Structure formats: C-alpha cells, structure tokens
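Exercise 7.
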Amino acid sequence: MSSFDRLIAQIDAFIRKFYKNQLVKGLILFTGVLLFTYLLVITLEFFGHFGSMVRAVLFFGFIVVNLIILAKYILIPLLRLKSFGKRINRYQASSIIGRFFPGISDRLLNTLQLSDQMDENSTDFELINASVQQRSASMGAVPFASAIDLSQNKRYVAWVLPIVFIGFLFGVFEPEVYWQGTDRVMNFTKDFPEKAPFQFDLVTNLESIEEGENYDFELVLSGESLPEKVYI
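Solution. The predicted structure, written as tokens, is:
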C-alpha cells in the first residue's frame, strides 16, 4: 500500500468515525426527547382531562416528533455509516480535519487536489506522483480519527439524567400518571368521564319499600371535596 493509499484510508476512517459520533449523539438525544415528550404528554392529559381532539393531537404529535428525531439523528447517520446515501466526501472531510489539525490543513487539501489532477499519460506524471507520495508520507503519522472523541458525548447525558430521575419519581410516587395518562392518550377516541372527588358509602342496607313511603337510611361521604346536597 502506497503512502497516498494509507492517507486515503485514514480519511475514510475519519469519515466513519464522524458518522459513528453522530449516531452516538443521536441515540442520547433520542432517548432524552422520547422520555421528555412521553412524560409531558401523559402529565398534561392526567391533570388536564382533555377531550378526544386534544388527546389525538398529543398522541400524533408525540409520534411525529420522535419519528423526526429518530430519522434525522439515528437512521440517517446509521445509513451513512454503512455507506448508504450521500456522505461527506474526502474534500469535506479534509476541511473538517483541518480544523483539528491546522498545521496540515492546506497540505492535506492540496494533496487530494493534486492526486485528482494526475494523468498517467502526462509527461510529468511520475514527478507529480512522487510529490503526492511524499506529501502523504509526511502526514501519515497524524491520527485523523483521534480528532473525534466519542467520550465527549457524555456531556449530553447530563441533561438526560434529570429527565430519567423525574420519570423515576413519577413511577414511585405517582404511578397512576403513567397508566391513566398513557391509557387515555392511546385510546383518544374513547370517552373518559372525570372521576368525582368523593364517593358514597351506604351504611344501611336498602330494603324494598312501597312507592311514596318514607325510608330512613345512613349514608357516609368521603373524599377530597364533599357535595353540600345528595339526591336520590
């Protein structure tokens, strides 16, 4: 393998790591957005008791937002990583590499341009090829792929963890938010009457009586808010 071939291999390795980094970042972002939008939707519905139309907007809005994030930040970088679709070319990659290694920025780009201009039938082909190989060898020790540090994505985890913690608190102290909110949003076409803030407890057993006859019985009310009057 010539020095130029090794240089091209290094650039290609940088491109692969570039998309791998986007994929890792996308996975963290998607996880955070998915959990945040889920908690937001079910919490709004749990406390808002919306009608079918609003619940449908919440449901489909949740799906659309997360599908967009999934496609843009996970599926597309994954396809690019597997060499499907339009990836950044070597010239674009060289420009990015040049930001990390300013000392070789111009040399790297010029070497690629010079290589593309070579013509085997040209009289100065050997001279240009020797120049390309020499330039490539001088840059061969530069670790292009090391410019991208995958561990730097840990900083994005910092804003996902609070969302996970809030979700954990809901699960421990308000688990009904999960199952009630999720059930009502997913079944947005159904009617869910709002539960009364009180309940009746009949102490006296009702017996059959004649129409118009008076009958005394004992009724106990309990709950957060009690009605002033009760009708039968």
